[in-house]
Each structure stands twice: as C-alpha cells, then as structure tokens.
Input
Amino acid sequence: MDNGEWAAMSAEDRKRNEEIHEVNEREARSSLLLCNKTVAMFAYLTSDPAIKKLFLLDEMLDRLVSMLLHVLGKLVGSKSVSIKIDNAESYNFKPKELLLELSRIFINFDGEEKFAAAVSINGFFKNNIDLLSKAAQTVEKYSILTDSGDVMKMKAIAEKVDELAGADDMDELTEEAEKHHEEVSERSEQAL
Output
C-alpha cells in the first residue's frame, strides 16, 4: 500500500483490495488457530498408549505422517526463514508452541518402528531429508524442549528415520541393479 501503485488505484479498487485483505486476515487467524488446536489435540491424544495405537493403523498412519511433516516443513523447512509476520500474535501464529506440540507428537511415537518407517518413506520427507534433524536442532537451540531427555529422544527419532530412509534407498538401488542385470541377461540370451 506504500508504493505508487496503491496511490494510482481508484478509490473503488482500493476499497475492494482492502476488503480482500481483511477477508484474508480473518481466514489466516482462524486457520492458524485451528492448526494450533489440532496439533495440540494430536499431542494430547498420542500421549495415551491405547489411542496412539489407533494412529498406527494403516488407514490413519500415512495421513497423520503427511500432516505432521507438512506442518513441520513450514516451521523448520528450507522456506521457513522467509516467513516474516508483523504482529504474529494477532494472527495466532505461535511457531515455538506449534513446534513444541509437533515435537511432543514425534516423541510420543518414539520406539514405534512402524511410525518411523512411515515417516522415512513419505514423499514429503524424501524431498526434505533433513527435516527431522533440523527440527531436533531447532528445539534444542531455542530451548523449546526443556527436558534434555526429550531433546535426546527427538534426535534419536531423526537418526532412526534417516537410517530407515537410507536403507530404503539401498533397497531401491538393489532392485534397479537386479532389473538391469535381468534385462542384460535377456538380451544376451536373445543375441545367442
């Protein structure tokens, strides 16, 4: 609104843009509030072992992992440094609280091989391979997790997922090599 383009607009266009801006602000506020409450609820629910098992069901696990990684990517991913919000509290944007709750969820799944495996094969994780490591570093750097045991668990989860992702990559390479070997063998047999 500070540039000459704003001044060059007609009063009607300025009013319409202000209305659109107000609608977008309201939507951002309500979406962030819902996001905060949803993630906090997941942290609470996954702290109960009986309820946590429900999230490990095949029907739920991939969706949960995708949601967690998507939000985590927004907070600590490669583009997270570009998030600049004036008056963040007025928009219900509380990145440290959100990261705390996400960390609690991951810690609640500590020791669950199925959860770690689902994270390691998730497409979003494959495109952001250092995401959990960055999250672990961030919670430690800014003292978001105050219990050193929780920080260690977060690091251990990141290491486990990285290990599983590396093993998955090796499996894919082995499969490709076997297919290539079969193709070469077939061509050799056909040539004879």
User: Anything to note?
Assistant: The mean pLDDT is 87.
